[in-house]
Amino acid sequence: MITVRKLLSFEFSKFGQFMKSLDEESLKMYFGMATSKDYIDSLMSKVNSNKLMHDFIIAEDEDLNIVGVLHLATITEDKMEIAIAVSPHRRKQGIADKMMTMALTICQNKNKNGIFMHCLSWNKPIVNLVTKYGLKVERDGTDADAYVKLPPAALDSYFKEMLLYNQNLFQRNLNFGTHFLRELSSY
Fold first, then answer.
1. Which of 12, 27, 115, 182 lies at a CB distance of 3.0 to 4.6 Å from 35, suitable for a disulfide?
2. pLDDT of res. 106
3. What CATH number corresponds to the domain at position 57?
4. pLDDT computed for residue 67 by the predictor
């Protein structure tokens, strides 16, 4: 079962490693342009120089392999930008949806009321995802920008974040135990 969790700052390099593992088309869908490994290294250098401006949510499979990432970048005191990438072989399984649920809840609880996402207008799965979450899509040729204004943090949003965290922690521990037993039985 897929689990999602927020990376701790010392784990941020996992985002860069995942991005480098993606094929050229997936990188183009994420960055909106052709991208090199050097560009990803440059991005990670910027992230590491100001970790407080970034959050990462990852999706892990049953073997604890990263199969999706969501980057939250602070733009201003109350606005964040979201970018999502999912492994090509794991798409259409609700992974981006799970990460988006967690991301918007985290943003709401951080009082980031303005959420922005740049996407390619031909990337129908992302356009459908952002529309599902109430982001207003504005198209300009091959590019599209999506915006949403979140309500302020409230008791129910804090509870939702805690529930999401604990559900995923429980499932991740089950996945870890299953993975450990499989490894152990192979000896």
1. 27
2. 85
3. 3.40.630.30
4. 95
